[in-house]
Sequence to fold (146 residues):
Amino acid sequence: MPLVECMMFGALVSATDPVTVLSIFQELGTDVNLYALVFGESVLNDAMAISLYRTMASLRTNASSQNIFVVILRFLENFFGSMSTGVGAGFISALLFKYSTLGVENLYNLESCLFVLFPYFSYMLAEGFGLSGIVSILFTGIVGST
Fold:
């Protein structure tokens, strides 16, 4: 197999390891903090695997640019671009929920709708730019929930 296809397979397989560990932790009833730490590492691992897979897939279709510098640059562009769209949407949602008065009387439905629409907006924005929507949603959740 070519190196690019091996890297694509490695990116896919690397995302499954923490899922197995989490299921074993749940069966054993381990400490909640340990479970949360491994879960957080698992989510970031999945985000990196998605970015690496997308980079290798774009490299596979464009075989003329097999320079290692171009591969690293595309990976960083994909990951940090997705992260910045998620952080931007998360900041906007956090500011909206903090400084608006959505929690009064009849606006609970609007608040619930916005709570769902901001991650969806983040996903669609990232996919529109050709980035990873899943990574964008991850960082929207991290920033928007603080």
Notes: Residues 68-99 form the longest helix (32 residues). DSSP finds six helices and no strands in the chain. The two ends are 45 Å apart (CA to CA).
